[in-house]
Fold this sequence. Notes:
This protein is α/β, with parallel strands linked by helices.
Amino acid sequence: MRIRTKLMIAVAVNILVFVSVIFFVIRPYFIEKSMEQDRQTVESQIASVTETLANRKSTLERTLVDWAVWNDTYAFIQNQNDSYIASNISEESLENLSVQAIVYLNREGEVHYSTFRQEDAPLSKADRQTIISDITNRLSPGLEKQDGVYDSDYGPILYASHPILRSDTSGPVQGTLVMLEFVDADFLADLSAQTKIPLTMQPVQHSETKMTLKNDGTEVVVPLDTVFQTADFEVGFIVEPTHYQNTISMLRLGMLSLLALALGLFLSLLWTIHHVVIRRVMEIVDELKHITVERDSRLRLRRDQHSRDEIEQMATSMNEVLSALEDTRAEVLDRAFRDALTLLPNRLALEDYFSTVRGSHERIGVIGLDLDDFRRINDQFGHRTGDAVLIYIASRLNFYKEAGFAARLGADEFIFLHPDWTFEELKPIARRLTKDLKNWSDVNGVKGMTATIGLDVFACRESHHTYEVMMGRLDVVIHEAKLSGKNRILSFQDIEDGSHYLQTLEMERDLRYALEHDEFELYYQPIVSPRPFAVRGVEALIRWNHPGKGQISPGLFIPIAEQLGLISDIGRWVLSQSMLEMKEHAARHHLFLSINVSKRQIADGSFLQELEDVLHETGFDPLLLHVEITESEVGGNLYELQQFIRSLKAIGVKISLDDFGVGTSSLSFLQSLQLDIIKIDQNFVKGIPENTFDRALLEGLYQTFHTLGLDIVTEGVERPEQLAFVLEHSGSLIQGYHYSKPVPLAQLEHYLKKTATMYDW
């Protein structure tokens, strides 16, 4: 990721964190505060409405007391003041008192006198009587002061009552004075004006004050019985969330402003960072890329002489590093292409020289020199003497090279190249080097110091003749010369047709090619039970039909495969291929499949896992699989072999000991191994029945193995008299040419069908 992108992300993340803190921390705080203020406003409005209603009630009660506790009223209720009505009760009096009606009740609760305001003329006399009757019925006897709001047929009516007393409140009580006030639109408008909030009144539905959040505010219902003694109504109103709305509007505007500010800050920071940091850094990067492309450590970064910031200090440091690299490069190149001891060019320099001269010359003469037993020289005469030998050889190569090239390849290996030289020109130089080395060893008392020299003339025009081919041919020559006795001069042409080493290399190449291109095939040799006759199993044997050399014996290529480490790959192929080919035959004819496992495969920790994988992939029954271990593998690796056998038996595989009698293992090993089958080698059978010793030995083996409870397979049975002897002395299974030699799969199928038909009785 580029630094510009990283900085953009860093700045954006910081701004985003800042905005997130405001949005997710500060904003909820202010919203909660505003909602708390709105809740306080609601409670304040509830208190205001309740207080206004209480004040209205108190005003009515004060007016009521003024009229009820009065000598004139006291005398009037006793029919002793005839001028009371004319003097006190009029339309204007009721209007001034802000009441709609006054009712005087005597001591028995009967109406002594009542009057209604004329503006309420729509009320008939009967209506008025109904209202007075309702009020009278709502007054409870024995209570001095009573008030309430009741639901009449003509709407809500506010009433209050007080006992009629003398002006000094002395008694006895002569009656009750009741004042009525109709709760109409004007009444509610007056209350709304006092509370500064629109009020509504409806029949009571709640027993206590209730607050409900709505989209447009908080809906409040206050039952009037919280103010009056009895009430059939409740007051409702809505308190708008002014603080919340103001806060939301403020926050919305603030967030928009903040986002605009953040965007501006983001762009401003990007511009500043780009012009102050990124632009200069990108210039340095581009200059470094140019230096890298040019591969010229002499180039330097441009400097801004007017700037002393950290970036310029970095550029200065990079220039110093480049200077140091230039110095180091010169030293490294010299060391990389030159041997420190002899000062001759090394292998890298040789490869560079070869690529230079190959295109301009038809051939190159090559001399390879390898000191014989150089380690002995170091151990016997010391490393100083060994170094002296190497330095001397280097000096002689430099002396003879003329326009050629000499190099040290390894500890005691040297090479001499000369364009266009032939064998006739190379051989004298090789003999002189041998003579020079002998003279030096005689003078310096280093007895027995010799060298093996290989010669080759390399054709440059052949496209496949590369540096690797040249070095490979030289290795082959020196290797063959050392095998034939060391201290000699040998050319590649001398061994090209008869080199065992070349043949081994060719065999390795052909083996690898055969594995990759399926040149191998499997033959199967039946393992037979003679009485009654039945083919009990088959042994899978690998065959190699080389496209150019024909059939190659397993006795030839198997040891080479073992030596080269290819036997595990071959064994893996045999394992998989034999199970694929024999799966159906093994199930149909009740055959077991026997395969050979080498010592290297046993040591290879992956074999068991590969076996389980192949069994799973092919679906082959592990109970029908026999693994053959040769007797020569039983010995020093007994513990590992026991673990290997135990693992095979855990998955149901049986174990055979092959070629018994060829190796040197004793019978005591059989007690340590959980074997199922012993395969007696054909060498015990060759002399049967003529050879008395072989007969006695084979009889003893049969008896021993039968006593141990082991199954036996006798190999190499070819003649009827051999078969007769085996049948006479054992119940052994038979494997040999008497029944069948190893055959390809198609012939095996024919053999199985033929024998099944022939012996199906």
